[in-house]
Amino acid sequence: LDFVLGIVGIILYIVDIATDLQLAISYFLDGHMIYGGLTTAFIGLAYIVVSVFGLGLFFNMNVPTVWWVCRIVFLILGLSPVIV
């Protein structure tokens, strides 16, 4: 059950990001530059905060180099909550 809930959580996280980006794009296409800019800024701010806190957690763990490479890749992709 934990595995299924984990997969559902990952899917919902990705869908949330996709819908946020879709909203920002629709604002820009409709000519609402301020709303589009604010939405994009909030998406970017959330990405930065989650990545910084995720990286902070990783520094406290002693793991092999291969895991560090995976962590950095997930951080770059914005999926750091997936591996926490």
Automatic annotation (TrEMBL):
Q: Report if keyword Transmembrane is assigned.
A: yes
The subcellular location is:
Membrane
Mode of membrane association: Multi-pass membrane protein
Q: Does the keyword Membrane apply?
A: yes
Q: Name one GO cellular component term.
A: plasma membrane
Note the InterPro entries from the entry.
XK-rel
Q: Where are the transmembrane segments?
A: 6-29, 41-59, 65-83
Could you list this entry's UniProt keywords, alphabetically sorted. Answer: Membrane, Transmembrane, Transmembrane helix
Family designation = Belongs to the XK family.
**What name does UniProt use for this protein?**
XK-related protein
Organism phylogeny: Eukaryota, Metazoa, Spiralia, Lophotrochozoa, Mollusca
